[in-house]
Description:
Urease, subunit C, domain 1; TIM Barrel; 2 domains; 6-stranded parallel β-sheet; binds zinc ion
Amino acid sequence: MRTIINNVNIFDGTGKLPFPGAIAVEGNRIINIAPEAIEPQSGDTVIDGKGQTLMPGMTEAHAHLTWPTSVEKFVPGMYLPPEELALTAARNARILLDHGFTSAYSAGALSKSLEISLNEHLKSGGMPGPRLIPSSVEREPPNTSELDPGHVEAHQMGPEGIKSFVKDCAEIGAKAVKFLISGESALKPGASHELLYSAEELIAAGEQARESDVWLTGHAHAAEAVKLGVKAGFRMLYHCTYADEEGIELLAANKDNLFVAPTIGIVQATLDANPPPHMDMSHMKEDAAIVLAHQKALVPKLKALGVKLLPGGDYGFPFNPNGRNARDLELWVEHFNYTPAEVLNAATQLGGEVMGMGDELGLIKEGYLADLLLINGNPTEDVALLQDKNRITLIMQDGNLYKTPLSQLSLA
Length: 412
Ligand SMILES: [Zn+2]
């Protein structure tokens, strides 16, 4: 019993332009890719793709399922009671899938173990959402920040304190452990240039992460934060805004072991935000303009050096809702000189790699997992059309049809 999708243009995820063909899925794998329509056998499900574009599902590389606001529900502020937070995270997981994101790499949660529990429910089926690399809270030193959830343990500093945090996260089931290596100027002026951890603490985090088999994720704006993150073995570095020449060389020298996600979505959303008069975003907007200018210079350099760059834009804030994630792709074309096919390659093939599944996820290739989207239109010509979920006419995840165009479906 196969699912056959005939009459499609296949964007296979490699960056090659779409080509006409058909595919067959059996169980959760793509078993056949053919240039002509595939002949159904009794019991097969057949979908007429009507010449639409078939592509791999996308990966959001900076996901915050517990950041409450989505395109479906505006939430002022960031905090919710625990029951509400759990339901909101589950809802956001469904919203990401509805918008074509079949995978998500978490950039931190507003709860110690919520994403870990959520992931268990997602994996066992019956609850819609992306494949998830779950994270615990974002670790930062003691402070009074509104965004500090800090409930994993008391904020012990020093190498041993940091190690115990990483170990604790790993033991409760987190796969990625997030540190704010530098601060965030959008929240506190000048903080993006401040290091929040010492080299010894970050190296200790790296040692414990390897021992506990978890990945380290770093919020790194400052030049020194980028360098320390690479040296400590962080696998994912966000922002990298003020990376200097030495930092760029270090990123390039370690390009097989790490990913960089500039998170342009939140930057553009800050610039675009039109807050009510009682909310002053003028400082955040000034900072966003500086970050954008730096990243416009940085990202093409890193790309030319072969560093693996991923879209993902810190969606979930009131002015940058979950569900708008595909906007990053358009912004990459606009700001980073990517072609649509190049950024689609980053969102699919490189997305499979950041999920740790590069040999079986992120491409339309025989033997690969069937995480697929059918798009009404050609995203390699206009990547912005991915922002309209009504253009996503079919969503398949792990071989299961999550969204199906009934008018195009028949049984053999
Ligand atoms: Zn974030």
